[in-house]
Amino acid sequence: MSETERITIYAAVDSPFPHRVLLALEEAGATYDTIWIDLMDKEEWYEQKVNPAGGKVPFLVYGGPKLHPGEAPSTDAVKIAESRVILEFLADIFPAAHLLPADPVLRARARLFIATVDAKLIKALVGFLFLGAPLENLLAVFEELQAVLPPTGFVVGEWSIADASFIPILVRVRSLLENVLENYNPEAAKEGVEALRSPRFARLQQYYEDVMARPSTSKTWSEEKVNLSFARRMDRFLKTGIINNEERVPVPST
Which residues are CB-contacts of 239 (< 8 A; sequence separation ≥ 6)? Predict the structure, then answer.
């Protein structure tokens, strides 16, 4: 399959999951349209007309005419949810971009890395940010992922969708610790910043510098917008206990 159809991605600034897809699209050199969704004040038409399965992002539409906010995708278009599935789809339709390595062993390593990010890192991050879990739980998962990085380069050597799965979370954690959480949890923020800059995470620091130097990261990462959006989310959480549409806890004590 080769990319010949229009690509539309529904994304949200504050979520790392559509950021994964945007990174892969940029690395593939794809032409695509982005429709932004505000997850804190989600438009009704999005779930009604686009993604009725919970109105989550990202959501990719492959084919059909140009879409505008409020419009339903063509019935003939391919519609794909879930960032991991979309990443694999992009790797298939852009084979020349090598979003997955040709070597089957490296492909397996890339997929295992993504599975670890989804199973462990996201859980540890949510636990730290919203559920009172210790910072060390999050740092331990970063250490586990750092241990499988090669001495240089990216997750499996050349950039791949494994990096697309990891970068959005890594850059958010770094930025939130340095710029946002100091207003909500200053002691943990300071500890986290110092840890990630320490010799313990020397390889991860080099990886971070390498990914930040790539055009795909600079084009898709808006630190200011993400931090403002997360501050809104944290304020709501402290007042209501709402983490997201599917999770809420008792209102945190002040």
Answer: 251
Residues 11, 59: Cα–Cα separation, whole Å:
7
Domain segments of the chain as ranges: 7-97, 104-240
Q: Is the peptide bond before 58 cis (omega within 30 degrees of 0)?
A: yes
Contact predicate 230/180, CB 8 Å: yes
- Distance, in Å, from the CA atom of 174 to the CA atom of 172, rounded to the nearest integer, reads 5
Is a pLDDT exceeding 70 seen at residue 252? no
Q: Retrieve residue 227's tokens.
A: 């931090």
Euclidean distance between the first and the last CA atom of the chain, given in angstroms as a whole number: 55
Instruction: Please say whether the structural domain 104-240 has been given the CATH code 1.20.1050.10.
Output: yes
Q: How far is CA 172 from CA 92, 94, 222, in A?
A: 28, 27, 10
| Domain 7-97 CATH class label | alpha beta
Mean pLDDT of 118-147: 97
Instruction: Name the helix (H) or strand (E) containing 237.
Output: helix 223-240
Does residue 254 carry a pLDDT above 60?
A: no
Beta bridge pairs of residue 4: none
Cα angle at 222 between 134 and 136, to 5 degrees?
Answer: 10
Residue type, 215: P
Write down the pLDDT at residue 3.
Answer: 54
